[in-house]
UniProtKB/TrEMBL annotation:
<feature type="binding site">
    <location>
        <position position="33"/>
    </location>
    <ligand>
        <name>substrate</name>
    </ligand>
</feature>
<dbReference type="GO" id="GO:0008652">
    <property type="term" value="P:amino acid biosynthetic process"/>
</dbReference>
<keyword id="KW-0418">Kinase</keyword>
<dbReference type="Pfam" id="PF01202">
    <property type="entry name" value="SKI"/>
</dbReference>
<feature type="binding site">
    <location>
        <position position="116"/>
    </location>
    <ligand>
        <name>ATP</name>
    </ligand>
</feature>
<protein>
    <recommendedName>
        <fullName>Shikimate kinase</fullName>
        <ecNumber>2.7.1.71</ecNumber>
    </recommendedName>
</protein>
<feature type="binding site">
    <location>
        <position position="133"/>
    </location>
    <ligand>
        <name>substrate</name>
    </ligand>
</feature>
<dbReference type="GO" id="GO:0005829">
    <property type="term" value="C:cytosol"/>
</dbReference>
<keyword id="KW-0057">Aromatic amino acid biosynthesis</keyword>
<dbReference type="GO" id="GO:0000287">
    <property type="term" value="F:magnesium ion binding"/>
</dbReference>
<keyword id="KW-0460">Magnesium</keyword>
<keyword id="KW-0028">Amino-acid biosynthesis</keyword>
<comment type="similarity">
    <text>Belongs to the shikimate kinase family.</text>
</comment>
<dbReference type="GO" id="GO:0009073">
    <property type="term" value="P:aromatic amino acid family biosynthetic process"/>
</dbReference>
<keyword id="KW-0067">ATP-binding</keyword>
<comment type="pathway">
    <text>Metabolic intermediate biosynthesis; chorismate biosynthesis; chorismate from D-erythrose 4-phosphate and phosphoenolpyruvate: step 5/7.</text>
</comment>
<feature type="binding site">
    <location>
        <begin position="11"/>
        <end position="16"/>
    </location>
    <ligand>
        <name>ATP</name>
    </ligand>
</feature>
């Protein structure tokens, strides 16, 4: 397919893996969070603090729904799945890959959530957020890559193998 979109919780490595995957495939790389910051001329955490969570999600939805790309790996923010228009658009222009990690492994990886610009509602825990989003990631994913006990190279190889299998099925 023309593009690849990476979705998943914060900390699963969407941006890191996206850059390396783009190099591997000879694709461009776009970080949707950086597109949001560029459009808004503010950091994600500033947008969340000034616009509130719903305001941020509306901006994120609009930015992701307007991405035009070809032969590009797109790393999205973890909350992109709250935007129906964005996810429908990304699903039309790309193969959507969900980078899946268990809650336990994810909790170990993540530091300060507020500094990461993570969209947490008042009183919501990381566990609540995880359970709420996993359902959405699974709903929108064309391919799910389980990262459990895999290093970066193993995750990349799983993605490349899955993309090859996926393209054989569509030709």
């Amino acid at each position: 397919m023309k593009n690849i979109v990476l979705i998943g919780m914060p900390g699963v490595g969407k941006s890191t893996i996206g850059v390396i995957l783009a190099k591997e495939l000879g694709y461009q790389f776009v970080d949707a969070d950086l597109l949001i910051q560029k459009q808004e001329k503010r950091l994600l955490k500033e947008i969340i603090s000034e616009e509130g969570i719903e305001g941020f999600i509306a901006i994120e939805n609009q930015v992701n729904a307007s991405i035009e790309a070809n032969r590009t790996v797109i790393a999205t923010g973890g909350s992109v799945v709250y935007g129906r228009e964005a996810m429908e658009h990304l699903g039309e222009i790309a193969t959507v890959i969900y980078l899946k990690l268990s809650y336990k492994a994810l909790r170990k990886r993540l530091g300060n959530l507020k500094n990461r610009g993570v969209v947490l509602r008042d009183g919501q825990t990381l566990k609540d957020l995880y359970e709420e989003r996993v359902v959405l990631y699974e709903k929108y994913a064309d391919i799910t890559i389980d990262e459990e006990n895999k290093n970066l190279e193993e995750t990349l190889q799983s993605i490349v193998d899955s993309l090859e299998l996926n393209s054989e099925g569509t030709e």
